[in-house]
Design brief:
- This protein is of the alpha+beta class.
- The protein has one domain: 4-Layer Sandwich (Glutamine Phosphoribosylpyrophosphate, subunit 1, domain 1), CATH 3.60.20.10.
- It has four helices and four strands.
- The strands form two sheets. A two-stranded antiparallel ribbon has the order 1-2. A two-stranded antiparallel ribbon has the order 3-4.
- A hairpin with a 2-residue loop joins strand 1 and strand 2.
- Keywords: Cytoplasm, Nucleus, Proteasome, Signal.
- Belongs to the peptidase T1A family.
Length: 127
């Protein structure tokens, strides 16, 4: 079992039932998280998520489940906090790079596509 886990963390492996192990891990992480909701209106959007204090050992104010990426794009998560922080940093960097090149904000759909590509790369590499 330990040998399989070692190899499954570096490559995309199929389980005996034919499923990708990394996808199963990702789905389990999301299932363990709190639900998140995004609502689009004609004059804006609302992002919301449940924020439970799971331990008295950390400051509740230090956990940010909704983050601004640009002035017009925000991000919310369900799942693992460290994974989310990596994606927030990457999304901000992608948005800044786009702005430096084109002198206009990155279109939301394009940023979503690029962040999804990052997530896919991490899933396939087992990181």
């Amino acid at each position: 079992m330990q040998l399989f886990f070692f190899f499954s963390s570096f490559f995309s492996f199929f389980s005996p039932s034919g499923k990708l192990v990394q996808i199963e891990y990702a789905l389990a992480a999301v299932a363990a998280g709190a639900p998140s909701v995004g609502i689009k209106a004609s004059n804006g959007v609302v992002l919301a998520t449940e924020k439970k204090q799971k331990s008295i050992l950390y400051d509740e104010q230090s956990v940010h489940k909704v983050e601004p990426i640009t002035k017009h794009i925000g991000m919310v998560y369900s799942g693992m906090g460290p994974d989310y922080r990596v994606l927030v940093r990457r999304a901000r960097k992608l948005a800044q790079q786009y702005f430096l090149v084109y002198q206009e904000p990155i279109p939301t759909g394009q940023l979503v596509q690029r962040v999804a590509s990052v997530m896919q790369e991490y899933t396939q590499s087992g990181m």
